[in-house]
Amino acid sequence: xxxxxxxxxxxxxxxxxxxxxxxxxxxxxxxxxxxxxxxxxxxxxxxxxxxxxxxxxxxxxxxxxxxxxxxxxxxxxxxxxxxxxxxxxxxxxxxxxxxxxxxxxxxxxxxxxxxxxxxxxxxxxxxxxxxxxxxxxxxxxxxxxxxxxxxxxxxxxxxxxxxxxxxxxxxxxxxxxxxxxxxxxxxxxxxxxxxxxxxxxxxxxxxxxxxxxxxxxxxxxxxxxxxxxxxxxxxxxxxxxxxxxxxxxxxxxxxxxxxxxxxxxxxxxxxxxxxxxxxxxxxxxxxxxxxxxxxxxxxxxxxxxxxxxxxxxxxxx
Amino acid sequence: xxxxxxxxxxxxxxxxxxxxxxxxxxxxxxxxxxxxxxxxxxxxxxxxxxxxxxxxxxxxxxxxxxxxxxxxxxxxxxxxxxxxxxxxxxxxxxxxxxxxxxxxxxxxxxxxxxxxxxxxxxxxxxxxxxxxxxxxxxxxxxxxxxxxxxxxxxxxxxxxxxxxxxxxxxxxxxxxxxxxxxxxxxxxxxxxxxxxxxxxxxxxxxxxxxxxxxxxxxxxxxxxxxxxxxxxxxxxxxxxxxxxxxxxxxxxxxxxxxxxxxxxxxxxxxxxxxxxxxxxxxxxxxxxxxxxxxxxxxxxxxxxxxxxxxxxxxxxx
Amino acid sequence: xxxxxxxxxxxxxxxxxxxxxxxxxxxxxxxxxxxxxxxxxxxxxxxxxxxxxxxxxxxxxxxxxxxxxxxxxxxxxxxxxxxxxxxxxxxxxxxxxxxxxxxxxxxxxxxxxxxxxxxxxxxxxxxxxxxxxxxxxxxxxxxxxxxxxxxxxxxxxxxxxxxxxxxxxxxxxxxxxxxxxxxxxxxxxxxxxxxxxxxxxxxxxxxxxxxxxxxxxxxxxxxxxxxxxxxxxxxxxxxxxxxxxxxxxxxxxxxxxxxxxxxxxxxxxxxxxxxxxxxxxxxxxxxxxxxxxxxxxxxxxxxxxxxxxxxxxxxxx
Lengths: 317, 317, 317
Known about the structure:
Number of helices of chain A: 6
Radius of gyration of chain A: 20 Å
Helix content of chain A: 10-25%
Strand content of chain A: 25-35%
Order of helices and strands of chain A: HEEHHHEEEHEEEEEEEEEH
Shape of chain A: globular
Oligomer: homotrimer
Largest sheet of chain A: 6 strands, antiparallel, barrel
Largest interface: A-C, 72 and 56 residues
Number of strands of chain A: 14
């Protein structure tokens, strides 16, 4: 038994992107470890093939049934609901990598690549497709380095799925950001790819106890689904500029480093929030079961101004 | 890959109240951080408005339905069940703050307040309403400082909801406590408020796998709902006096610092245990998924003696 | 708010057995703490009585029903499904203790016992019954000390349940192991006990979002059930020999130290994977909600060779 005497100094609200190095001068453990990097690359390819196999779900032969009772029908139906919900919503979720170009003595930084050593991954996060023209919504803190870049070396790579289920990777250009609400908008060049925008819900009629689903890339594991319930409403979480974001949604669906910017989804498949923070031990980014999302109603107020003007419309109230 | 060689020295059973400072002489990070304190105050007000909005739940227009299949009915019904369960049971759950009066040179400690600086929050926990006369059940370790106070400076503040859904705060007077079972009883002055006592279940017919629900105030986030299943039965957890509490219920519903003393509830809305401890890394109080509650059958044996005699009836077996 | 700058150096994939000491020369905290040890012993006895009481489940009088609406029927049925699933599958799950014999000056190590001080527990893990002849499947890293023992002092104790619901403990002899897939096979002497082998499923038709269930012994708490969904598929996790195990199943069902080697089960009660690792803070072994299992299709390819030949059939592709 341990008295939790030093709790406050050990734990804090943690924003859930995953930075692999604290400064641009330190070597990135992520890229210096071939194995960890291989895992990430590989899971990209797998994600695509997994998405393809979903098409065959309802024609797969059902596994033999151990329990032969009426109740299993409901259980099966609920499972199918969650499976289908993931299939329909996950193509709208993107994987965001913060890259820093390695200064090239030959003076060309045109093509970025983590594979040829011309860039290194500084951190990862999540986001979701806002519209068919290629706007991506994420947390400001996921792309803060790019947003405040003065070196010209920061880049942002977005891994998306198009309407045919194919993965593709694009550079994300920063369109606008608002640290007060921890929101940012990126844009990717479509080049003929058709995107599936997320379907937005509303956060003003949520109830504690309803089911919710987080999709994102914790620790770089792409297209991860975690489930839970709405644990609380009307929470306040601190924004990157030190003010409070009100009306935050609390959930016990696991949210870890790398989930930041990804959608929290209700059982209709509608986005109800942007996964942003967890209450955890400092420095770990490990889900505690007390996790927070920015409510979608706030996102819907802020993002259109970021798309159109690129800056927050600070006098809108 | 890491060999878990030092596991035993890094982890331990943690009691789940939330102490913000270890000694009365050190400054409290909780009260010294205006933002953190604002968050807590705010969420109190929100909790009340949230409770009010519950009344309109079934008349709210349903959101548009993405999946048009028979199975969704069952899914919706299950969600409604959990939403309703929270609405019916959460008014019986209270938020407990351990206060220490700041020595007043003018010699009056009659009115305690964290807002005028005459008291500071030393820790927080949860509890539930035992009866309509204002008895509150919680863990002994949540109110241990008050129970063993010799300075006369320890106080306990209880935030409750009355039958009309209004929040109010009262001082809790300690009535009785039993460290051997980690249980304590507080009493609040009703002053015309009507309380909704928790409905007690039984813990002798529980089964591993049945659903359970924890309500409490992890990290001070009031009225938090987390869900899971009964993971194990008949566990032993250490009590504050070093003996074993037998028959403890193990659950994977997230229980974090601040959940201590709150109820574990079955799917009928009945209290089946008192959330008490988690198995976690020392000093963090972060839920591991291996969490423990004192069985309600034990609580039902102990609490009446504490209410009547104020001391444990140690010869009752 | 904390920038997760040192994340990569603080967290890593952790294999989920539970080692109580890193070297054979250091004293074991587990056995040096009488209370912790008592807890483990006790929970063995409880597990057995709990299993017995399951037989009476459907004849138990139902608790009084607070909500009188049609929807509860589905909710109850789903709970019964999970309860029954645990009852039918948990007898196939075993508890594995790594023991090291204490060198006996009188020269006899024939009878090992943690109670008379002739052996101490070095770590714990989980496993499941492969067939009626007493073969047990677990992770290689759970029994790595025994597999690579040159001192002759390593032993392995397996706690099982027979078809009558009685607990019994046997020494497990190592039959074969394959570090490349983190799998090992033990064999126990049946001596007339009838075992219930786990029912194997398939992992090639899994879908993200379907329900899954982990049974094992986190932190030595035997026969623990945790629940969640399949969070991802086609993951790669590192094996003990440094290569990648492909096709791993990711789940948000809590998996902690001691779960290693236990089964991940689908809602039909079929084994779909072997719980192996979690992504967490170094040294804690605490579930993050990002947990991994070796897919059963891989297990089914590897284990028969280990049973027959005792070594991996490395040229099988």
